[in-house]
Each structure stands twice: as C-alpha cells, then as structure tokens.
Amino acid sequence: MAAPIIRVGSTDKEVSKDLCQFVIDKATSSIQEKGLFTVGVSGGSLVKYLCNGLPSFTTDWTKWRIFFCDERHVSYDNSECTYSLYKSGLVDKVGMPPENIFPINPDLSVEDAAVDYEKKIRSVFPGTDIPRFDLLLLGMGPDGHTCSLFPGHQLLEEKTRLIAPISDSPKPPPSRVTMTYPIINNSSYAVFASCGEGKADIVQRVLEGKEDVLLPAARVQPTNGEVIWYLDKGAASKMKNI
After folding, report:
1. Can you name the residues that pair with 38 across neighbouring β-strands?
2. What DSSP character marks residue 57?
3. What is the pTM of this model?
4. Considering only CA atoms, which of 204, 157, 158 is closest in space to residue 6?
5. What is the rounded CA–CA span in Å between residue 216 and residue 212?
C-alpha cells in the first residue's frame, strides 16, 4: 500500500490540464494492453475539469467504459444528475458511443438501482470476484467525504456489497448509489482532484492528519494500486510536508 503521490499545480487550470493528460495516458496504456479502458468518474468540480479538458485529446473513445463512483438517485433531466452532465459535456461532444457510459436506472428504487448497477459493472468485468478499474476519479467534500461515503456513516464498514444504496445522505439529495471500499480499493489508480483554499484544511487533515478515525477520503488506499492527489497551490497551502 503505497503512500499517496501529491502533484501540485499553480492554478486549477493547470490541475485540470495535468489531470486530463494523466487520464489520457492511462487510457492509452490500458487500451494497448487489453483493448479496453475502464474508468469511474465523479461529480462536482471533476465534471468541469474533465469535460473541458478531455475533448481536446486524441484517444480511441470506442474503447472507453465510463461508470460513476457515485450518483444521485434522480431522473436524467434533473440538474443534480451527474450522468447527464457527462453525457452532454463529454460523450456527445467527442462522439463516444452512448452505450459506453453506464448510468444508474433512476426508475428503480434506490436499493434496486444499486443492485442493478453492480450487475452493469460486472457485465464489463466478467469472471472477476471484485472488478478492478483502471482508474477511479474522485472528489472530496469539505467534510472529507468521497463518493457518497460520509464520516460516521455505516457504509464506511461495508464489506460485501460493491455498490450500495444510501437514503440518508447528509448532503442533498438524500438518495444515492455509491461504490464502496472493496471495489474502490481494488482499483489500479485512485485519483483525487481538489482545488481552492477552501479545501486546504481538509486536504491537510486527510493527507497529513493523525485522525483517530480516518476520514472517508483517507480510507482510499488501493491494496495493489496507487493514490494520486492533484492539488492547486490553494488546496495545498496548509500542508507541511511538500
């Protein structure tokens, strides 16, 4: 379990550029090795970074398979729907086959949507106990949450389900579907992007703090992979060891 790799850019634009270059590099190597690139994406600032940056690169989009590290249990036309942002901002923009991005089914109950989503993931990883994503792109909230895994929530201890429902999210909307640590920590690369001085305190706590109970983002520790943090100077400003 390697220590996190920390990469600091001057601005959020530089972070976005470096992050997108890393994603493309991993896509290229994965496609060369096995003919497929499996990636999990998240909402928040990552939507802007990826949708603004990735379309300018050249890659074989037909070989991409995009899933969601977590998703709000809302209809596709709801402004809170992360899938729709990537569908219009990336998939349609680059001409990716629409079947290469996998949304949750909001017509199901949140519990059934989670079960269904795990089946969708397993369909791309046949014959594996725990699917191994090439790359998971993660965000972090001001409370240290990642995906829809919140401090003190029982899902932090989930060991069986790879995808779990949550109906009591402390951040609205309350109902969501989220990856859990067994699949997160089986990824080849788990990559965070955090920018702005408003994230400085929580970034320092997650990366350098001596918490008795690890914050959710600090629990992202792939057993046979790497964690990389892309920060701008503002988000890194409280760190002592860089």
Report:
1. 65
2. S
3. 0.97
4. 204
5. 12
